[in-house]
Amino acid sequence: MKHNVDSKKLEGLIAEIEKNIPTQIRVAISKNNSHSSILQIYKYEAFLLLLLLLISWKTPFILTIIVILFILIQTIQHFFSQKESKLKFTRLNNEARSLFYTHEMTATQFRNGLLIYFAPKDKFLCLLPDIWLLQNLPENFWDQQVLKFKSITKNKDLSFQDQVFSFLNTLSNELNHHIGTKEPITNPLNLPTELVNQPILDT
C-alpha cells in the first residue's frame, strides 16, 4: 500500500476541524522504513528443518532431534518477537515526542495543541495532546481513538490517505462531542509563524 497523502486536502481538513474545536492540530507522517523483522533470521532455518523432516521421517532419533530444534526455534522467535515489538513501540513514541517539543507544541497560549503522528509502515499512531486537552477530556479518550484508528486500518479497501481522513473525521466528531461546546477560544495559539502556517510537520 502506498502511504502518500494529498497535502492540500489534508491541510484543508485540518483547517475545517479547527473551526469548530478549540484546539490546534499538527499532523506528522513518518517517512522512515519499518525495521526488518528479527524473525527473518529464522525463516531459512525453519525451511531446512522441514526439509530434513521429510528426508529422515523414518529415523526416530533424527526425528526427535528435529522436533526439539523446531520447538527451540519457536521459543526463540516468540522471545524476539516480543522484544522487537517493545523496542519499535519505544522508538516510535520517542520520535513522536521529539517532534512535539521540537515544533513547540507546548507554546500555545492555552496549552491546547495536539500532535497526531502516523507511522504507516509500522501501522502506528501516536496522539500527543497538551495540558488543556488532557484536562478537558476523559482519561481513556486517547487510547480509545488509537483503537478506532486500528479498526479503520483493517479495511483493506481504503488507501492510507482514506484511512487518515476517515480517522481525522472520526476524531473531529469525538472532540466536538466532548469539547465543542466549550467557550470559544479566539486566539488559541501563540506559536511561531512557521508552525502556524505548517499544519503538516516534516519528520
Describe the protein.
- The structure is a single chain.
- This protein has 203 residues and is of the alpha/beta class.
- The protein is built from 7 helices and 4 strands.
- Strands 3-2-1-4 form a 4-stranded mixed β-sheet, with helices on both faces.
- Helix 1 (7-20) runs parallel beside helix 6 and helix 5 packs antiparallel against helix 6 (160-179).
- The longest helix is centred in the middle third of the chain and has 43 residues, at 60-102.
- The model is unreliable at 35-41 and 186-197 (pLDDT under 50).
Strand and helix map with partners:
Elements: H1 7-20, E1 24-29, H2 43-55, H3 60-102, E2 113-119, E3 124-129, H4 131-136, H5 141-153, H6 160-179, H7 193-196, E4 200-201
Parallel strand pairs: 1-2, 1-4
Antiparallel strand pairs: 2-3
Helix pairs in contact: 1-6, 2-3, 5-6
**Mean pLDDT, rounded to whole units?**
78
Tell me the span between the first and last alpha carbons: 20 Å
Largest sheet report: 4 strands, mixed
- Class derived from helix and strand content: alpha/beta
Residues in β-strands, percent: 5-15%
Query: What is the H/E string?
Result: HEHHEEHHHHE
Strand arrangement, largest sheet?
3-2-1-4
CATH topology of the largest domain: Diaminopimelate Epimerase, Chain A, domain 1
What is the level-2 CATH architecture name of the largest domain?
Roll
Q: From the alpha-carbon coordinates, what is the Rg to the nearest angstrom?
A: 23 Å
